[in-house]
TrEMBL record:
Signal peptide: none annotated. Residues 12-346 form the Class II Histidinyl-tRNA synthetase (HisRS)-like catalytic core domain. GO terms for molecular function: glycosyltransferase activity; histidine-tRNA ligase activity. L-histidine binds at residues 64-66, 91, 105, 109, 298, 303-304. It comes from Roseivivax lentus. SUPFAM superfamilies: Class II aaRS and biotin synthetases. This is ATP phosphoribosyltransferase regulatory subunit.
Amino acid sequence: MSTGAARDRAMMLRDGFAGQGAEVIDCAILQPAETLLDLYGEDIRARAYVTQDPARGERMLRPDFTVPVVQMHMAEGAEPARYTYAGEVFRRQEDHPERASEYLQVGFEVFDRADPEAADAEVFVAIRDALGALPVRAVTGDIGVLTAAVAGLDTSEARRAALMRHIWRPKRFRALLARYAGKTPVPEGRAALLAAADPMAGAGPLIGLRSREEIAARIETLRADAAEPPIAKSEIEMIDELLSVAETCPFALEHLKHIAMDFPVLRDAVARFERRCDALSARGVDVDALMFEASYGRTSMEYYDGFVFGFGAEARPDLPPVASGGRYDALTARLGAGRSIPAVGGVIRPDLTLMLECGV
């Protein structure tokens, strides 16, 4: 597929969103690495291209548009606001070397506090309509249901925080959950360390950047965690059942309501899901046929904290999503210097739309 054709398609898609009232914006290709590292930690280095600028410090090639768009809006944007953009993004593909590491992305973002579920439906429908008759299948999810479950666990704040950090890393999340439930044994080295009256006695010279005080504090943190009782079996089973939900929206809603009868911490998140279904239906979406998967979106960028969706090529499961998006309210709070606003957006890969049109 020619670069020129993909760029022409990107401009067409962007202009279509502009025709719906979105302001056309652009963001620098080189972004400050500090912001992204602060948000995602060192893990972002495995997914982004990092470079060093003698005058500006560490920079990253833009891995997506959402973070710079949020920064721009929180610094100077009016409310409510709708934005659209088109340009290259850059992501390392070590796990999928056959995929492009540089490609065009077109987006539509909505910042509006009036009715978040209506905004979710607006973005979903805008992306769906932009894809037209392409042979794609939509899947939705809601990270907010899982975060509500984790926030309501009867365990220490430190354990809840650790699980929250790893919601977007399913294998690590599952390993932590098993450890906190007492299903995995404590490693021998850690058990010996915690059993010692003075673990620092007889320690050799310090190697690395941590001070003796920091190491001692870490040992006390491990001791406090070891003293915590296991997470209740019923709560583990609740999360397992929650993550297994994969049905059309009406059946998923009834399933989640059933779980919430025994775990009231889920009720607000389930109510938001129900309002979103009503908002989607009001915009002409066949909600009865729309899939909902409670675990969907957990391997995407970590800023999604509510509604998530994707459109995948039905005949090409090997391809990344043709379009995807979600809600990122918490990101606006983190980048807003004390202010926040509900926000949701979606992106399209114009190169993939052309591939599907040509039957490639």
